[in-house]
Amino acid sequence: MLPESIKQLLAEKQAKDSYRSRIVCRPHDSYVEVDGKHYVNFSGNDYLGLAVDTKLQQRWGEVQLNSGSTGSPLINGYHPSHQALEETICDWLGFESCLLFTSGFTANSSILKNLMTNKQHTIVQDKLNHASLLDGGKEANAKNIRFQHNNIAHLKKRLESVDNYKLIVTEGIFSMDGDHAPIDEVIAAKRQHDAGVMLDDAHGVGVFGKQGEGSLSLSNAKAADIDIFTATFGKAVGTSGAFVCGSQQLIEYLVNHARGYIYSTSFSPVLAEMTRIAIEKLRLEQWRRDKLRDNITYFKNILAELSFEMTGSDSAIQPIVVGDNKSTLLLASEMRKQGFWVTAIRPPTVPAHAGRIRITLTSLHSHQQIKAMLFALKESCERLKICQN
Ligand code: PMP
C-alpha cells in the first residue's frame, strides 16, 4: 500500500499547474517525432548534434564489446573501455585523475554527501545550482548555505561568516538561465578565503573552447584551480553517464567513499567506448561549435529585432521568462501547435513566478528554423497577451 498522502500531493500539483507527464519522443536531426508528427526541436541538450549523428550510430553496431559491465566498479564492472574513457577525459581537460558515474545527478549528490561529512565544514552554493548539487548539499553532514546567484559580494560575505573548511559550489553554465558563473572572481574568492571550489560544467563542456574544453576556457582559470570538476555526457557529448575530475587524492577518496559510485553497476562498456569516440569527434570537429555559435548570435539578433527582452545568455540555453505556470503551459502548447517543440519549465525547477520556455539551440538548427520559431513565439505572445515583452 502506498501512503494516502500521495493522492493529495498529486492533486496539489494539478491545482497549481505544476503536474508533469512524460511524453514519448524520438529526436532525429533538428526534429523530434511525437505521436507520428514532426516538430522542430528546441528542447533537447544535444548541442552539437552528436546524439543523432548517423555516422556515430553506425559505430555502435561495430563496437565489439560486452553489452553489460556485469558489476559495480569495485567488483568487476571497471573495464578497459571505462579506463580508456577516463584517460581520454584527463588528456582532454588537463586534470590529474577522473572517475565515471552513471549520471551527473548521482555524481554531484554523492560527491557532496560523501565528501562533506564534517559538521564543522560548510558548503557554499549558488542559489540557482542544479537540484543534484542542492540535494547533495542538504544530505551532507556539513552545513549547507547558499549565496545569491552569481553575486560575488554575497559569496564573499558568506565565506567570511564561516570558519574552518568551506567548499564553494557553482556551475559553468546555469541550466535554466544559460548564463555563466564569473569563474575568475570565484577563484579569487576561493584564494582569498582558503576555500575549495566545485564546478559543474554540464552545459559548458563540448560547447566552449578550441576542443570543447568547456567554461574554464572562457576564463583565466586552469584545471588545477578547480578542486572538483563534474560534467555529464548527456548534453554536448550526446550519450549518457558522467564524470568527476580532480586530483589523484580526490579520486582515490571517492573510490573509497562515494556510495553512488561504489554500489552501482558501471554503465555498459559499449557506452563507454561510444562516449570516448564521441569526445574524440567533438574535440576535432570545431565546425559544430562554430555552427552553434553562429546560431546563438543569429537567435539573439532576431530576438532584438522583434524587441524581445534579451536573455543575458550567450550559451545554447536561451530562456524566455513568462511568469505564471498557466501562461507558460499555454505558450508551450501554442508553439507545439505551430510545429515547434519547446518545453514549459515551471517551479520547483525554477523560482516561483519564473516559469519559462527554455529554448535550446544546437548546431543542427538552420537560421530559417530559428527565425520561424521566434516569429511564432512573438505572434503567440501578442495574441495570447502573456509575455513580459
Ligand atoms: N548538472 C546540471 C547543471 C544539469 O543540468 C544536469 C542535467 N539536468 C545534471 C547535472 C545531471 O546530469 P545527468 O542528466 O547526467 O544526471
From TrEMBL:
Keywords: Acyltransferase, Biotin biosynthesis, Pyridoxal phosphate, Transferase. GO terms for molecular function: 8-amino-7-oxononanoate synthase activity. It catalyses: 6-carboxyhexanoyl-[ACP] + L-alanine + H(+) = (8S)-8-amino-7-oxononanoate + holo-[ACP] + CO2. It comes from the Bacteria. Its cofactor is pyridoxal 5'-phosphate. The keyword Transferase applies. Its EC number is 2.3.1.47. Residues 38-374 form the Aminotransferase class I/classII large domain. Pathway: Cofactor biosynthesis; biotin biosynthesis. Belongs to the class-II pyridoxal-phosphate-dependent aminotransferase family. BioF subfamily. Homodimer. This is 8-amino-7-oxononanoate synthase. It comes from Catenovulum sediminis.
